[in-house]
Amino acid sequence: MHWVRNGAIALAVALVGAVIWIGLQPQAPELPINTRLGGAVTLTDQHGESFNTAALEGKVTFLFFGYTHCPDICPATLARVTQVWKNLRKAGHGDDTAVVFITFDPARDTPEHIRKYLEFFDPNIVGLTGSAEQIQDAAEKYGVVFIQEEDETGVEGEESKGLFTHSDFIYLLDQQGRIRKLYPSNGDIQEMVDDATSLL
Amino acid sequence: MMLLHYFNAFLVRAVLLFLCALAMPVLANEPAISIENAWVRAVPPVSATTAAYFTATNNGDAAIRITGVSTEIAGAAEMHDMSPNEDGTRSMRRMKTLTLAPNESVTFSPGGMHLMLFRLNHVPVEGESVSICLLADDAMEICQDFVTKK
Ligand SMILES: [Cu+2]
Questions:
Q1: Which residues form the domain of B17?
Q2: Distance in angstroms (rounded) separating the CA atoms of residues A46 and A111
Q3: Which residues pair with B53 in a beta bridge?
Q4: Is A18 inside any structural domain?
Q5: A69, A165, A186: residue with CB nearest B89
Q6: Do residue B50 and residue B120 come from a single domain?
Q7: Nearest residue to B95 via CA among A160, A151, A162
Q8: CB-CB contact of A77 with A158 (8 Å)
Q9: What is the CATH number of the domain that holds A186?
């Protein structure tokens, strides 16, 4: 009967060890659900098709606003989020994740122009444009502020006309389309990968 | 002995003076501003604008006022700064001039000060080098090759 007792002790030791080991794992606190912002929006994608972001339910999505004539922040954000997506794909999460870019410059960002622009980063990024009302609605839902520089002859000079002053957060949406986290446009790539993975 | 000593000291001074005179034109030719880490952001071929970044140091002993930017690949180029607003947005503001005090160094970097290149007539590809010139007072022109990077 000795082996039974020894076996039982060994099992108990293993169980206790396992419990301690699990307890010691860094447990990331669950990302809170933002109940104030977000929601599905209907716009037009880069192929000219109507696109409702509810179609992304079931996927963890990175969403952000910008415009293609943006010289500094927007291309950097696109490059960053593209890298995040690449890393997620490498980890086998390519089919469970998505990236969405919404323009607030529909006059210049036609579906065709957005398609060409996004090809440089990743043609699978969903690029959305729409009517001024649709874009305003989307921006309001996500708490995005954008103001186009109007002055032609003002102190800012002719060239600044058409530039936007805008908020530049990156939103992490869970599989139900709820906002779970906001990142600055220069957010940490590994942090975004880890957060997205935690929602899958 | 005393005399020889005096003569040696004189010789040393003469040699030093001579070397200084030799070095003078070299120093004068050296640009007072040095530019490092110069790069242009690689953007999609359909882009109309891009931005460029660098670190500039004034090595001279007089202040230098930068008054403009020019490059062949853009219809216009400007110095910009980026400043946060109360509502969480950020605004780009044109800087018409930028003065560098002696020994002062400034860094243009993403999300901060940057060179804006408007109306691109050529969109440089990754790895391509682009000449961009900073214009300063007294018709000084400081041109530098900027490498195109993502
Ligand atoms: Cu700018």
A1: 1-30
A2: 4
A3: B39
A4: no
A5: A165
A6: yes
A7: A160
A8: no
A9: 3.40.30.10
Domain of A189, in residue numbers? 33-199
Q: Closest to B114 (Cβ–Cβ): which among A68, A72, A185?
A: A72
Task: Of A83, A115, A87, A84, give the one whose Cα is nearest residue A101.
Answer: A115
Residue-by-residue pLDDT tens, chain B, 150 positions = 555 555 566 555 655 555 445 554 444 445 689 999 999 999 999 999 999 999 999 999 999 999 999 999 999 999 999 888 887 788 888 899 999 999 999 999 998 999 999 999 999 999 999 999 999 998 889 999 999 998
Q: The domain that contains B114 carries what CATH number? A: 2.60.40.1890
B17 and B51 assigned to the same domain: no
Residue-by-residue DSSP string for B47-76: -S-EEEEEEEEE-SSS-EEEEEEEETTEEE
Pairing of strands A126-129, A97-103: parallel
Q: Who among B43, B76, B111 is closest to A73 (CB)?
A: B111
Number of structural domains found in chain B: 2
The reply to whether B11 and B22 lie within a common domain is yes
- Complex-level ipTM: 0.76
Among residues B50, B109, B107, B82, the alpha carbon closest in space to that of A168 is found at: B82
**CB within 8 Å: A159 and B82:** no
The answer to whether B50 contacts A145, with C-beta atoms less than 8 Å apart, is no
- Please give the Cα distance from A59 to A199 (Å, whole number): 9
Q: Does A185 touch chain B (CB under 8 A)?
A: yes
Q: Which residues pair with A126 in a beta bridge?
A: A100
Going by the DSSP 8-state scheme, the letter that residue A34 receives in this structure is B
Contact across the interface for A71 and B114, Cβ inside 8 Å: yes
Domain tally for chain A?
A: 1
